[in-house]
Write a structure and sequence with these properties.
With about 425 residues, the chain is α/β, with parallel strands linked by helices. The chain has 14 helices and twelve strands. It has two domains: about 220 residues, Glycogen Phosphorylase B (Rossmann fold); about 160 residues, 3-Layer(aba) Sandwich (Rossmann fold), CATH 3.40.50.
């Protein structure tokens, strides 16, 4: 399996999805070898074998510089593309990349190229029946690994798992080209929702027969309840957790905050996360007169996530385009009602929520105010939603994935 991140060093939902998914697959009796760009020695993944592509990528890598502590410092500050976002921006701060390589000139997709080379080297010495690759930055590595198997006269299927697309993110045409090439090269594609399948079919021209939908799950666990936060003694709280980028709709969230706080005085809005729109969102909040009403925080640790969810009276996800969306499930698990965009795949599996068009600020603000004022209604919604997520497990998703593996392997052997 080829993936870009795993907890505790991850930038968002992809890492948590890979963690839960792999645990479920192993419980189904399938062994996994997972290839990361960089595997920090402090991270433990006892249920599977994890390989470090950086150790195999190139003889030019300066191993004396690329140590755990140096990389970890960059990763924890979310400045490195290994945990922040796939590629180094041209003209950006290339001192970040000096932690990984010295005499290699850093380019836009250098980390992706090095990851692919490392994965290909690992594939030369590994035995594998299928290649399962997550999102565009691992697709080139999957193709190279499949070619390695082919040179051994073994036909190994490449399964592309699409958690998000360039159509969702709107980042750059080169990534779109890499996505499309990867999808075309794949033997089969897994989409995290029917919404994402429709995007792949419409915008990438992929035959829908080649695509299976496997919804994400959530780990079933007993949530530890935290003491009531002092802020809750005076205010109701509305929460946003996510990357502060165009895709997640942070500007709509700020407009929501303005609309709601104008109607409801004792409410605070929290925005937790980081991203390329962070500075502009702080400026927008100031222009809207929300300096004392909207609180910002950079990304928090996984250990603090439950506390954040439990602080909130309402969780809001106003994404412009959201292939799935794990954070609403986590909010529900913590007893918080959710208001989410209709453009979110999670609405296909959770009905006990309020789904509104992301651009309909008036309607979304009205939904938030209703939940803030009508506590019995909010509690009943959460109770029903918690019953729904009991059936949304990673074991259910894993069972579907293992069936897809079997069909793909059978198809490859018959080709």
């Amino acid at each position: 399996m080829l993936g870009w991140e795993l907890p505790p060093y991850h930038s968002g939902g992809l890492g948590r999805a890979c963690e839960g998914m792999t645990k479920g697959i192993v419980r189904c009796g399938t062994a996994i070898s997972f290839v990361l760009p960089k595997n920090f020695h402090g991270a433990r993944y006892d249920w599977m074998s994890v390989y470090d592509a950086s150790e195999h990528a190139s003889a030019k890598l300066d191993q004396s510089v690329m140590d755990d502590q140096v990389c970890l410092e960059f990763a924890m500050r979310h400045r490195c593309s290994l945990t922040q976002g796939y590629f180094v921006h041209p003209g950006g701060d290339n001192t970040v990349c000096k932690a990984c390589f010295c005499d290699i000139e850093a380019g836009e997709f250098t980390h992706v190229d090095l990851y692919s080379k490392g994965a290909a080297e690992i594939a030369k010495h590994a035995q594998f029946e299928a290649i399962h690759a997550h999102d565009w930055m691992t697709f080139p590595a999957a193709i190279m690994a499949r070619n390695v198997a082919a040179r051994r006269r073994k036909r190994v299927p490449f399964i592309a798992h699409v958690h998000s697309t360039e159509i969702d993110r709107h980042d750059g045409s080169h990534i779109y080209d890499m996505e499309k090439s990867g999808m075309q090269a794949a033997d089969h594609i897994i989409a995290v929702s029917h919404y994402t399948k429709s995007v792949i079919t419409k915008y990438y021209g992929i035959d829908p027969a080649k695509i299976s939908v496997v919804h994400n799950g959530i780990e079933q666990r007993s949530v530890q309840r935290h003491p009531k936060h002092p802020l809750k003694r005076r205010y109701k709280l509305v929460l946003f957790i996510g990357r502060i980028t165009y895709q997640k709709g942070p500007d709509y969230y700020i407009r929501l905050a303005k609309r709601v706080t104008d109607q409801y005085s004792n409410v605070k809005f929290l925005m937790i996360g980081s991203g390329d729109m962070q500075a502009s969102m702080v400026e927008l909040a100031a222009r809207e007169g929300l300096t004392e009403k909207l609180l910002f925080s950079s990304w928090i640790s996984d250990d603090a996530m439950d506390l954040a969810y439990q602080m909130a009276d309402v969780f809001v996800m106003p994404s412009v385009s959201e292939p799935f969306g794990i954070v609403p499930l986590e909010a529900i698990q913590n007893g918080t009602p959710v208001v989410i965009s209709k453009n979110a795949g999670v609405t296909e599996v959770i009905r006990s929520c309020i789904a509104v068009d992301f651009w309909d600020i008036e309607k979304m603000a009205s939904a938030i105010v209703t939940l803030l004022k009508n506590e019995p209604y909010a509690k009943n919604m959460v109770k029903k939603a918690q019953e729904e997520i009991k059936g949304l497990t990673w074991d259910v998703a894993a069972s579907k994935l293992v069936s897809i593996y079997s069909e793909a392997i059978q198809g490859a052997s018959n080709a």
